Amino acid sequence: MRTTTLVSLIICCLTAFSFAEPYPLATDPTGEKLGDKPIAFQHEGRDLLFASEASLEAFKKDPATMLNKVDEQIVEQQTKIYPLETCVITGEKLGSMGKPVDKVVNNRLERLCCKGCSKKAVTQFDDNVKKLNAAVIEQQLPKYANKTCVVSGDDLGDKPVDHVVAGRLVRLCCDDCIKALDANPAKYLEKIETK
Fold this sequence. Notes:
This protein is α+β, with helices and mostly antiparallel strands. The protein has helices at 2-16, 53-61, 63-79, 118-123, 125-140, 176-183, 185-189, and strands at residues 39-43, 46-50, 101-105, 108-112, 161-165, 168-172.
C-alpha cells in the first residue's frame, strides 16, 4: 500500500511541475500599468502580476471577466509572432476546418484547428509548449539582433541561454537571468531587437 501511495505522490508532483508561463502583459488584469516590482499572484494555477494591492483586490471580485480581457490581449500579442501554421495538437493546417480556435492556456496561446482540440490543449500543455518553443527558436533566432543580455546588459558570449516567453525568443547571458525575466517579462521584451 505504501508503494502505491508513493507512486501516486510522485506522479502528482511531476504533473505539478509543468511549464511555467509567466504573465506577459505590461498592464495587470485590471488595466493598471505594471511597475518595476509587480505583485505576483497565482489564480487557479495561472501566474498573474498586479500593479498594486488595490488592483489585486479588484481582480478577486470578478476574475472571470478580467481573465477574458487578459486572454484577448494575449491572443492579440502572440498571434502576430505565432510560429506554427498547423494545429499544435493534430498537425492539421490552421483554417482547414474553419476558423482556427485560439486557446490561452497558462498565459500561452495555442492555435487549434477546431474546438475538439480544446481539451488536449490543456491536458497536453507541456508537450505543446515544447513544440511551440522549438518552432519559436528556429524562426526567430536568425533575426535576433541583440548582442547583450536584455536583463543584465552583459555580453551574450559564446553560449547564450535561449528562453521563450510569450512566444518570443529571449537570449540571456546565463540561467540566473531567467528568474528576473519571468518575474516581469514585459519590462524586458520591449528591449528585443530584430534584424
